Amino acid sequence: MFILANFIEAAAQIFGVLLTILYWLILIRALISWVNPDPSNPIVQFLLKATEPILAPIRRLLPLDFRFGIDISPIIIFLGIMFLRSFLVRTLLEIAARMR
To answer: pLDDT value at position 65?
Structure first.
């Protein structure tokens, strides 16, 4: 049973790291958008390609009268990431700990 516990714990830790990386990518994209970056810059292109598939569905779900002239989709994604970190990752780690 300890093998399954180790697998679940490793999966939870990897998931936590991926969520942290996603958090930072979205934060950097939001900060860079304030300074009107050069769209031909490879770093800006990477940030757009890495975060747009996550942000675009949230933008489509927001009603038109809820948009304030600023993009609040990163805030919604941040809340989702915080929820997944505090609920899903902790739950997986607890399951792994109880299996030992």
So the answer is: 60
Half-sphere exposure of 23 (CA within 13 A, CB side): 14
Q: What is the tens place of the pLDDT at every residue in 42-79? A: 999 999 999 999 999 998 888 766 666 778 889 999 99
Task: Supply 78's token pair.
Answer: 């941040």
Q: Which of 22, 21, 43 is nearest to 32 (CA)?
A: 43
Structure token digits, residue 50:
């890495």
Sort residue 36 into left (φ over 0), alpha (ψ -120 to 50) or beta.
Answer: left
> What's the token pair of residue 47?
């940030």
Domain ranges of the chain: 2-98
Contacts of 44 (CB under 8 A, 6+ apart): 32, 37, 38
